[in-house]
Amino acid sequence: MPEIHDEPSLGRRLVALLIDWVIASLSAVAIFGAIGVRFPPEGIRDQLIINGVFLVEVAILLGLVGFSIGKRIMGLRLINPDGRPIGIPRAVLRTLLLSLVLPAIIMTDDKRGLHDLAAGSKVVRA
What span is annotated as the signal peptide, if there is one (predicted)? Predict the structure, then answer.
């Protein structure tokens, strides 16, 4: 991985994740509200739909442009070892693992979670 300015703080990364989660939740309500999806979720069905929207939104954005809306707002981006976006297949893998939470909280010394290691990605300051 190329050396990039500063490693982003965990707080900055968590705020970006929260922004993405709220956007996905509101998107899910806008798209699936007619079938009763609510925010905050009122059951496992609502949560699964929100998770699906989160996966699609975040994976497509990270894979194609290297940042989600939350990462963009927080001044972060996701790169592969060449410094470019990681592509959609690796972004889907990364986002699926992120959704499981545990891979994201187990980190290396350089603040890369297991989801980043599996996808060959790194979060850096933009």
Answer: none
> Per the domain annotation, does 90 fall within a domain?
yes
Q: Which residue has the tokens 């001044």?
A: 75
Residue reference for tokens 């609510």: 38
What's the confidence (pLDDT) of residue 5? 52
- Split into its structural domains, the chain has a count of 1
E strands within the chain? 76-79, 122-125
Q: What CA–CA distance (Å, rounded) separates 77 from 54? A: 17
What are the structure tokens assigned to 100, written together?
């499981």
Q: Dump pLDDT digits (tens) for 70-105.
A: 999 999 999 999 999 999 999 999 999 999 888 888
In a domain, 2, yes or no: no
Q: Would 102 be classed as within a structural domain?
A: yes
Q: What is the DSSP letter of 113?
A: B
- Which residues, at least 6 apart from 38, have a Cβ–Cβ distance to it below 8 Å? 29, 46
Q: Which of 2-11, 22-31, 44-53 has the lowest mean pLDDT?
A: 2-11
